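writing this on my phone so excuse typos. first protein, seq and then structure
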Amino acid sequence: MTAQILDGKRIGAQIRDEVAAGVELLRARGLRPPGLAAVLVGENPASRVYVASKVKACAEAGVFSEKIEMPQSSTTAEVLARVEALNRREDIDGILVQLPLPPQVDEGAVLSLIDPAKDVDGFHPVNVGRLVLGQPAFEPCTPAGIMQMLRRSGVRLQGKRAVVVGRSHIVGKPMALLLLREHATVTICHSRTQDLPGVCREADVLVAAIGKATLITHEFIRPGAVVVDVGMNRITNPEEAARAFGGDEARIRQVREKGSTLVGDVLPTAMWELASLYTPVPGGVGPLTIAMLLSNTLKSAKIRLGA
């Protein structure tokens, strides 16, 4: 079977172009552009990279953005005060607090204080509840982006069996709810699932979001399945890279020369050999997350501006 790539870069670019067009329509009506505030607490290197990429994407789409940096020593009260101030600002339509927060900051308290109407990450309990009930809500960006990718790639979900590996609040649980909304029959798996390979082999659509490099191997994938790999892990061993990427010398050389390469939760050779459609890592799910953040921010602005 020749697997085909689900091109997250291409679909993410489509969504970002649609957002840019929506921003231009607001401007043409004499309205302000959407505004997004990104709160970055501490010095986590990965978080700094993520926030920078979000700010850059905003600029490219014509969305106003403001990066708010707070020291590693910030208290819960200080972060809450900053979020409350953003809740009151009329020029801010979306608020994201980059996770993880430093250990002394109460993540639940911070996320719960964000105005649900500005919760473009879709993490507020109100938006989570609306998602469960099938009501209009801001959907978490990664699962929402995956749904856009499947829809725009012509993947039918009605009546299909979907398996989600991972039960996080950010990906696994909302992913299952969105698949269920499209009338798929959904199973959520996790570290305590018995016969995990056997359950995964039942899937027409398999979503891997468990955070363990190459955990999903050939024995997990039914031939012809659609495989969505949400994982983003680094491997540093050339022998491990050779196992993961088979004869892909470029990826093996990357480990030798740069010290590491990115790999998902699914063994790449297993996807290539068994899937009908699959997402590469990188370039699969990642670009969709930022695209949906912009889409949610535009949606919030249109609601708040009555547009």
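second protein below, same order as before
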Amino acid sequence: MINQVYRLVSPRQFEVTYKDRSLQSEYVVVRPTHLSICAADQRYYTGTRGKEAMAKKLPMALIHEGIGKVVYDPKGEFKTGTPVVMVPNTPTETDEVIAENYLRSSKFRSSGYDGFMQDYVFLNRDRLVVLPQDIDPYVSAFIELITIAMHSLVRFETRAHHRRNVFGVWGDGNLGYITSLMLKKRYKDSKVIIFGKNQYKLDHFSFIDEAYQIDQIPEDLFIDHAFEAVGGKGSQYAINQIIDHLQPEGSISIMGVSEYPVEINTRMILEKGITVIGSSRSGRVDFQNTVDFMVEHSEFVDRLGTLVGEVHEVRTIQDIIDAFEKDLTSSWGKTVMEWKI
């Protein structure tokens, strides 16, 4: 069959390419239905990823957050029409110690490898996680982002000490919102405090215990563990502020991505015996854990509905461009594309 792939060829310019794909293979064929735009996609779209990276990775289909429906499974394990979330990480080997999302040989969609902006996506069967029929498709579109928080939380739970009375989350954006909400559901008796720059964003965090703007934090406020969801140059200031307000032997889970190295106060990391936990992306187990968590906590999904910002019906390449451009001006939430092209 001929599959149409919608690739970014240069900043703000998409072109259709045609790939001949055989149905006589082991791949499960999925028709995307809802796709969500990530900040990483925007860096490619706007050309701010850097000339070297752009030259190396383009042309490429964007989007690594999305759901779809199975249209063909050669083994018949997935029924036609089954709703699934697509796992963008694609490992080529296994390791008894290193998780699939940290293996240097793994491929990741929309990062040097075609993402989900295609008529049909051909996936290994272990790259699919079945969704309940009644789950909100607009929230489900950005399950990949939710798995980032889930993955970080799982790593935290295996590495940090067990005093978990007070959590701090730095970052008032989408990931900070998801992480704070997940902590409140997971640790019902613990206090969760959000730290951010924008009061109108902090106002969305109605479920947390306390909220502070980062220039108004009391000097005597201390937390047991922290999650950094700021990223960019701002992560430097966030991490150093966390170090100041962290109890000795606490942990910092770093999730924010920065294009450039940042300076952090290693002296106080040593003096306080702080554990720094890095995490990036996620694997299939994180997707399954996240879907299970969403099924168990329906109110968690309802709260995540607050993050659904712009919704765009996509039938043409111009619709794709319009969705990306509108997303650039959105101050809150996720932009979801209803994929009908």
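The chain has two domains: 2-143+307-339, 146-278. thats all i got for now
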